[in-house]
Write a structure and sequence with these properties.
The protein contains eight helices and eight strands, in the order αβββββββααααβααα. It is of the alpha+beta class. The protein has four domains: about 80 residues, no CATH class; about 100 residues, Band 7 domain (Tetrahydropterin Synthase, Chain A), CATH 3.30.479.30; about 45 residues; about 80 residues. It is found in: Mitochondrion. Belongs to the band 7/mec-2 family.
Length: about 325
């Protein structure tokens, strides 16, 4: 009879425990609103830690699985969740080192790693760590400029996480990461930033345009230089060809003299027709002497050209002889 009564009591305790777990809700990110009932037999869910007090004093921490309590003496005082939890950090204002007021909010990812410290080390861990995150954020932003805040968001998140973990060591809670969600500068600052971006883009466009014009001018100048060089080369080749033809042809010098005389007379005749003022050369009475002096200048230029050509050939021949002598010595 007593055995049946005990069995019914145990089964009733188990049913009550299951119903209590099913209808319990959470007080914060790791505590429940309603604590489990203090029955003899309890089942601790996975990733939870139950703090048991005996006669008002800490007794033990119940791990997941079956647990047996002593009625009237043992009491489940705290229930801690060991899962990673996201806590929203509300919007707040912060002033940068260059005196710009920002509105910022974020999300804090935390986890309880010591159920005892989380229960007895702080009154409300969620509130405490949220306030710590806000004060730490204001402190970190106060050391940075606006451009640095916008550019180094990841570095700011890391600094805030490190500062929170350093201050919350005695709370049994660790901050896994902190993420800044939104950054809202003042409207005037936003307008100035937009103008700056627009001016920067305009500047880059003007620089690219000027570089294009500069390259165009360089290309045109190089083209003109190449054209002048090619024309000069063609003229030099023509003169060289004519000179060689005159020197290598019998009677070439006489033919040149005749051609010069004809062009001289023709040019003087045109000058007399087209102008009222006629320039009379000093040697007009001695046409033969004038032509002879012109041919003398031509012969002098031709001799200098031949002399230069002979000197170049002699220099090339001497260099070839020296090279042949070196080859012979090595052989």
């Amino acid at each position: 009879m007593l055995s049946n009564t005990s069995n019914r009591a145990v089964r009733h305790s188990v049913r009550v425990a299951h119903n209590a777990l099913r209808h319990s809700s959470r007080l914060s990110f790791f505590q429940q609103k309603q604590l489990p009932m203090n029955t003899i037999v309890r089942f601790v869910p996975q990733q939870q830690a139950w703090i048991v007090e005996r006669m008002g004093k800490f007794n033990r921490i119940l791990d997941p699985g079956l647990a047996v309590l002593i009625p009237f003496l043992d009491k489940i005082q705290y229930v801690q969740s060991l899962k990673e939890t996201a806590v929203e950090v509300g919007s707040q204002s912060a002033i940068t080192s260059d005196n710009v007021t920002l509105e910022m909010d974020g999300i804090l990812y935390i986890r309880v790693y010591d159920a005892y410290k989380a229960s007895y080390g702080v009154e409300d861990a969620e509130y405490a760590i949220t306030q710590l995150a806000q004060t730490t954020m204001r402190s970190e932003i106060g050391q940075m400029t606006l451009d640095h805040v916008l550019r180094e968001r990841q570095s700011l998140n890391t600094n805030i996480t490190t500062a929170i973990n350093e201050a919350a060591k005695d709370w049994g809670v660790t901050c896994l990461r902190y993420e800044i969600r939104d950054i809202h500068p003042p409207r005037t600052v936003l307008d100035a930033m937009h103008k700056q971006v627009s001016a920067e883009r305009t500047k880059r466009a003007e620089i690219l345009e000027s570089e294009g014009k500069r390259q165009e001018q360089i290309n045109r100048a190089e083209g003109e230089s190449e054209a002048i060089r090619m024309r000069a080369q063609a003229t030099a080749d023509g003169i060289r060809f004519v000179a060689e033809a005159i020197n290598n042809t019998k009677g070439g010098a006489d033919a040149v003299s005749l051609s010069v005389a004809e062009k001289y007379v023709d040019a003087f005749g045109k000058l007399a027709k087209e102008s009222n003022t006629v320039v009379v050369p000093a040697q007009l009475s001695d046409m033969g002497g004038f032509i002879a002096s012109g041919m003398g200048i031509y012969n002098q230029v031709t001799k200098q050209g031949l002399k230069g050509k002979a000197e170049k050939e002699a220099t090339d021949k001497a260099a070839a002889d020296r090279e042949a002598a070196k080859v012979a010595e090595h052989a």
